[in-house]
Amino acid sequence: MSNINLLPWRESVRAAQKKQFMVILSVASLITVSVMLVANMWINQQTARQQQRNQFLQSETAKLDLILGEMSNIREQRLKLLERMNLIDSFQQRRNLSVRLFNQLPELVPPGVYLSSLNVVNNQIDIVGKTEAYPRVANMIREVERRDWLYDPRLSSIFASDVQPIALSQFSMQLKVREHTPGVIQ
Which secondary structure element, helix H or strand E, spans residue 104, and what is its range? Predict the structure, then answer.
């Protein structure tokens, strides 16, 4: 056989394969770096977009917080106005109480009962007086119970006094006034 030296041919093939491997490696590296740069840009873009959304949501949340704050202020003002209206309403209902009481007092107090003091506090009327006989005070209590705007008459004390020439018994009574009387124009 003849003596053929294949070493230079193998070395040239290996050099070509090495060169081809380096080209493929550099192309793969370029593609990888390009993909990484594109992915990084896309992620940064998405992050920036999400930050813009977050800023928009925060600004809208701040606006809604202001609106809710205004609504709570409006609710507080509404409650204050309702309280004032209720107070005015109670004053309007109570302003005719003394006139009504003095108009109907002659019908409530039977003959033989004499009132010495009448005190109105809130919805309670305190009456102190004298009577010739206990049944007359009982008649007064029955007359109060017939009224729809007065209720809960209570006789707190009744006792005989030693006043001459006529012996009168002293009594003390409490009545309550209804806030709203049905069917009665005040």
Answer: helix 97-108
Query: Could you report the per-residue pLDDT of 47-73, keeping only the tens digit for each?
Result: 999 999 999 999 999 999 999 889 989
Q: Which residue has the tokens 């409650």?
A: 79
Residue positions counted in the chain: 186
Q: Both 62 and 137 in a single domain?
A: no
Q: How far apart are CA 156 and CA 154, in angstroms?
A: 6
Q: Are residues 123 and 102 in the same domain?
A: no
The SS3 assignment for 77 reads: helix
What residue type is assigned to position 9 of the chain? W
For the cut 90, the answer to whether the pLDDT of residue 41 exceeds it is: yes
Find out whether 149 and 178 touch, Cβ atoms under 8 Å. yes
124 phi and psi angles, rounded to 5 deg: -125, 140
The pairing of strands 169-177 and 150-160 is: antiparallel
- Of 90, 108, 126, the last residue of a domain is 108
Q: What are the tokens at 53?
A: 């959304």
138: domain range? 111-177
Q: Which of 110, 88, 100 is nearest to 148 (CA)?
A: 100
The verdict on 83 and 71 lying in the same domain is yes
| Structural contact between residues 101 and 154, judged by C-beta atoms closer than 8 angstroms | no
